[in-house]
Amino acid sequence: MDTQFGKPFAHTLVKSGWKKRSVFFELPYWKSLYVRHFLDVMHIEKNVFESVIGTLLNIQGKSKDDLKARKDFIAMGIRTELGPLKKGKRTYLPPAAYTLSRKEKKTLCKFLSEVKVPEGYSSDIRRLVSMKDLKLKSLKTHDCHVIMEHFLPIGIRSILPEKVRSSITKLCSFFKSICSKVIDPAILPMLQKEIVITLCELEMFFPPSFFDIMVHLVVHLVKETQLCGPAYMRWMYPVERYMKILKGYVKNRSRPEGCMVERYIVEEAIEFCTEYLSNVQSIGLPKSQLVEKKEGKNLIGNKIVVVSRVERDQVHLYVLHNENEVEPYVEIHKDVLRGLNPNRNENWIVREHNRCFIPWFKDHIYLKYYSDPASITERLRCLAYGPSFHVFSYSAYAINGYTFYTKEQDDKSTMKNSGVTVVAEAMHISSVKDLNPKFANLSYFGVIERIWVFDYEKFQIPIFGCKWVENNNGIRMDMSGFLQVDLNRVGYKDESFNPASQARQVFYVNDPKSTKWSIVLFSNKK
């Protein structure tokens, strides 16, 4: 007798793995469709980062290295030396290549706890670090994105064996490349080869439990980028932001969908009506600060200071050299000096030009202005007259899409906005006796100490007074590709001023490998 308890099923049970055939398979083009669904780069990166950082810091619930993972080694017959060991009543897990000591965990957490980023770069990384528990907490998706691509490769520079560190760094570099807004299609095949090799290298160090479905999906990101374009056009960041807006529509939690629909319809109706009303701002569109940040706007502090003649002339000369209208007169003046001093070399001509160009330019423009006023523009006349000795001094200034702080304001803030870099033309000579110097563009890195706005009667020009790093011995590129600067090696004290319109924002983080050096990271323009 075969007794079966319970009611029998009305239909025959499906013995295959799939219980339902998707309606999409009825589409005629479905079998030839290359991309049937998007892989969300945002969540893949977040989950991979949590696996890496959880395993390195041995965070409970996030680590892929536990007793079961070590038993997998024994069951699979690989790396049996890492299998669990019985010592009395306790089970001991031998340290693996990725295992960090408590001192190394402190080094990594201390580095992250000291990171200060510019405005709009990310959330405050320091608040995510628990030095007591030596772990990261309350991580949002964008926090994982920033730490994975920028800070984790720096934080592990002084810890972990070389091969493990190199593999993790290459994984971080892959995500940084695949998440770029501009990707050269020619490098995608190389990226595909590199990520396959990187995952194989990680398999040599990390346990099998580390390689879940999320780590596997990393292999397919390059192919999807080739077919669908850059990841930022497909990932979930804008969707998640809009979901937060929709959640704010819900006032009756028992009817969330209805609340969203009614609020959306009301906003659409009002938005339609605002098209016929003057001086009415659109709903949900805050006033953009982008225009003000591009053109220039003072933010903090407003003092009037009196500058010395040396500082005023130094700034004025730099402004003249960076004005398109003045450029022809610069060449005229140099030609005059060459004609009067045919036996002098180019170095002497440049020094003499810098010394006497301001009075020559003023006399030349005003003589031309009195003889033919129409030939001189108002801006050129103001430039020839020069700026006032009374200048506006600020602690913060927004321009070029960045927010800049002085070093003094930076020290009081939770953000780091005082780093700056400019690309300027510099004269290069091989020796003191070199009679044919070469001119080429060179990048300079420094910290803003003063923000001045000079008044030229009809217009104003913001100027940054910076402490520049000496290029010869203060800047280097290490073997890992990190740009390093020694902020204590100061140079170019006679050329400390620079027009704010040429500035690009950077910020510096301490190098865990060497306290002398800082690593340069570039800020994002808003």
From TrEMBL:
Database matches in Pfam families: DUF4216, DUF4218
InterPro entries for this protein: DUF4216 (IPR025312), DUF4218 (IPR025452)
Domain called DUF4218: residue spans: 178-282
Signal peptide positions on this chain: none
Domain DUF4216: 455-520
Protein name in the entry: Transposase
Lineage of the species this protein comes from: Eukaryota, Viridiplantae, Streptophyta, Embryophyta, Tracheophyta
